[in-house]
Write a structure and sequence with these properties.
One of its GO terms (molecular function) is hydrolase activity. Pfam families: CheC. InterPro entries: CheC, CheC-like_sf, CheZ_family_phosphatases. With 207 residues, the protein is of the alpha+beta class. It has a single domain, classed as Chemotaxis protein chec (3-Layer(aba) Sandwich), CATH 3.40.1550.10. Helix content is 49%, strand content 30%. It has six helices and seven strands. It has helices spanning 7-32, 48-58, 84-95, 101-130, 150-154, 189-206; strands at 36-46, 62-72, 76-83, 135-137, 141-146, 163-174, 177-188. Strands 1, 2, 3, 4, 5, 6 and 7 form a seven-stranded antiparallel sheet that branches. Helix 3 (84-95) packs across helix 4. It starts with 6 loop residues before the first helix and ends with a helix. 37% of the residues are buried.
């Protein structure tokens, strides 16, 4: 089952996500004392099977990620995902080039967790605030996993028939580093319906 969105509804979600990642970019720029650019070029609502196919094609191999549970007007798990071989590059861009490779490796999990906390919290909080809803988030957890096992890591008790993934592609520009990653929001179908209802009320208020 997939969600049926109008063009306006799809565009508004992209706009809201861009506001969220824009706020995250501002917070990250202060953290690294350099300009950080983030954008959302693509958003899709997918079944877990469809999302699995995309991950296996676009990010085969090992992934580095940050996972965070959330609950409120919608419930589920959010994840920030990168190809594992690029994660150290991202961490180096955030920490600076004065550290050795060993030092950066030691700080990888902590730095990725902080990055995920900033990015995921800003996106979720922006969605909730602008849609006039409430949401609470759990502490983020950094992890590494091979692509075929990603979705079972996000949701060990996953029901492919009862869940939906909002997959958001994000483009990063950090100093000299440019890379693509994904935000994946795994939500149950009831939460997805609640999210769309809140979105439609928001759109109606703009008319």
């Amino acid at each position: 089952m997939t969600l049926s969105l109008t063009a306006d509804e799809h565009d508004v979600i992209v706009e809201l996500m861009n506001i969220g990642v824009g706020r995250a970019a501002g917070a990250l720029s202060q953290l690294v004392q350099d300009e950080v650019l983030l954008s959302v070029p693509q958003l899709q609502f997918l079944t877990p099977a469809e999302a699995r196919d995309i991950f296996c094609r676009s990010m085969p191999g090992l992934l580095a990620g940050v996972m965070q549970g959330f609950r409120g007007f919608m419930s589920g798990r959010a994840a920030l995902l990168f190809p594992e071989e690029r994660s150290l590059e991202l961490v180096r861009a955030m920490l600076g080039t004065d550290l050795s490779a060993d030092e950066i490796s030691e700080l990888e999990q902590e730095t990725l967790a902080e990055l995920g906390n900033i990015l995921l919290n800003n996106c979720l909080a922006t969605l909730a605030n602008l849609l006039n809803q409430q949401i609470q988030t759990e502490l983020p957890q950094a992890f590494n996993v091979d692509t075929p096992h990603l979705l079972s890591r996000l949701s060990p008790a996953q029901d492919d028939e009862g869940s939906m993934i909002m997959l958001v592609q994000i483009d990063f520009s950090l100093r000299e580093s440019a890379l693509q990653g994904y935000l994946a929001f795994l939500i149950d179908l009831h939460s997805a319906d609640t999210f769309i209802e809140a979105l439609r009320r928001y759109l109606a208020g703009l008319e």
